[in-house]
Amino acid sequence: MMYTFKCKAAGDLIMAQADGDQLLQIIGKAPAAEGIIEVAAVSAAIQALENAVDRGQANHQQAGRLVSAQPRDTPAEDEAVELHQRIWPLVEMLKRARDQREVIVWGV
Questions:
Q1: How far lies 67's CA from each of 7, 62, 75, in Å?
Q2: Do 7 and 104 touch, CB atoms closer than 8 A?
Q3: Alpha-carbon distance 87 to 79, whole Å?
Q4: What is the rounded (10 degree) CA torsion for 80, 81, 84, 87?
Q5: How big is the chain by its Cα radius of gyration, in Å?
Q6: Which residue has the higher pLDDT, 59 or 6?
Q7: Is 36 left (phi over 0), alpha (psi -120 to 50) or beta?
Q8: Among candidate residues 68, 63, 65, the one with its CA nearest the CA of residue 82
Q9: Residue 62, Cβ neighbours under 10 Å: how many?
Q10: What is the CA angle 81-97-46, rounded to 5?
């Protein structure tokens, strides 16, 4: 399944299910085929995503210090898409929705 987030204030945002599920959970929504982020919840959703990125970066830096002391033969998680990269399009959509007082829906 793919998520297609829609908002009158922005273009459609298509996201893989695993990424969409993760981001919905971060903002306190249960992953579902259909849903809505109400105007009143948009600012809290932005804050939740930004807080998750901050926590993720702190954990990544701490893990990096531990791993950097060990030699590596192959690239590991360094090439993985980081959380802040995955959430950026949704945060931008949320900001536009907040500014224009629009809802975000998916699956409808």
A1: 41, 9, 12
A2: yes
A3: 17
A4: -150
A5: 16
A6: 6
A7: beta
A8: 63
A9: 10
A10: 50
- Residue type, position 103, single letter: V
Q: pTM for the full model?
A: 0.78
> Tokens 């993985």 belong to which residue?
80
pLDDT band (50, 70, 90) for residue 35 = very high
The residues that bridge with 7 in the sheet, in sequence order, are 10
Residue 36 has pLDDT above 90, yes or no: yes
d(CA 21, CA 10): 21
Q: Give the whole-angstrom CA distance, residue 52 versus residue 27.
A: 9
Q: Which two tokens stand for residue 100?
A: 């224009």
pLDDT in tens, 51-92: 999 887 655 555 555 555 555 565 555 567 788 888 999 999
92's tokens: 């931008």
Count CB neighbours of 55 within 10 A: 11
- H or E segment to which residue 33 belongs: none
Token pair listed for 28? 């306190």
